[in-house]
Amino acid sequence: MSGVEPGTPCWADLATPDLTAARRFYPELFGWTGRVSPQPEAGGYTTFLKDGKAVAGAGPPATPDQVPIWSTYVATDDADLAATRVEAAGGQVLVTPFDVFDQGRMGVFADPAGATFSVWQPMAMRGAELFNAPGSMSWNELVTPDPEGAKLFYELVFGWHPEDEPMGPVTYTGWRCGARIVAGMTPPLEELPADLPAYWSVYFAVADADATAARAAELGGTILVPPHDIPQGRYAALRDPQGALFSIVTLPT
């Protein structure tokens, strides 16, 4: 894959105060290897590889008080224009777009409900090189108490069109970008802590959700939502030892 279309999630990375622990936990969980950036100013930023292909990253937090978090990056042709649209739509620019060496240009934003996300304008680095295979990113999902506000915001920022689908007691929304559904949105799940702010959840594909969840607990993580079947496969929500949320899913074969 040479890169993903603008408006499509293309990368995920972890901001964590304990990079050493993250470099130990995730490779043991997903079979990743880590490649640490040689530039001192990168702060030890680590690109995780699966079968030699870049799948995700991890780096130090942007501010000392930032909670450990997985971030979704959406591909864009123009990070600065995205920042302008975020502000016009009522969001916040948390980190003004800047160049990451020769790799790409990124910015960090928050939607009106407080969910943070990033954009990536690719240069040398196009984004993840593997999707939907075990150990790689397979889905990105906004969990928000204000779905209607999010529909307006993300359409203005990315041109996404929401498509609602009833799923039991809640309405699930797919974000359409061109011909494809590229991400999703759901109201907060009852199983998750009630005080969680709006956030973007990153899903990683795994061969066996039950075994991976059990392994995460063995490694010091927490199972927030035990493995169970959903229409898209078998899913679980986890928290790493430092507190960062992420999800896993075994996709149907």
Structure at a glance:
With 253 residues, this protein is α+β, with helices and mostly antiparallel strands. Helices cover 17% and strands 44% of the residues.
What labels would you give this structure?
single chain, 253 residues, alpha+beta, 8-stranded mixed β-sheet
Kindly describe this structure.
The chain has helices spanning 19-30, 79-88, 147-158, 209-218, and strands at residues 9-15, 33-36, 46-50, 53-59, 69-75, 92-100, 104-110, 116-122, 137-143, 161-167, 170-177, 180-186, 199-205, 222-230, 233-239, 245-250. 17% of the residues lie in helices and 44% in strands. Strands 2-3-4-1-5-8-7-6 form an eight-stranded mixed sheet, with helices on one face. It has an eight-stranded mixed sheet with strand order 10-11-12-9-13-16-15-14, covered by helices on one side. By secondary structure, it is an alpha+beta fold. 43% of the residues are buried. The model has no long low-confidence stretch (mean pLDDT 94). It contains four helices and 16 strands.
For this structure, the quaternary state is: single chain
The H/E string reads EHEEEEHEEEEHEEEEHEEE
Number of separate strands: 16
In terms of DSSP E residues, the strand content is: 35-45%
Describe how the helices and strands are arranged:
Blueprint: E1 9-15, H1 19-30, E2 33-36, E3 46-50, E4 53-59, E5 69-75, H2 79-88, E6 92-100, E7 104-110, E8 116-122, E9 137-143, H3 147-158, E10 161-167, E11 170-177, E12 180-186, E13 199-205, H4 209-218, E14 222-230, E15 233-239, E16 245-250
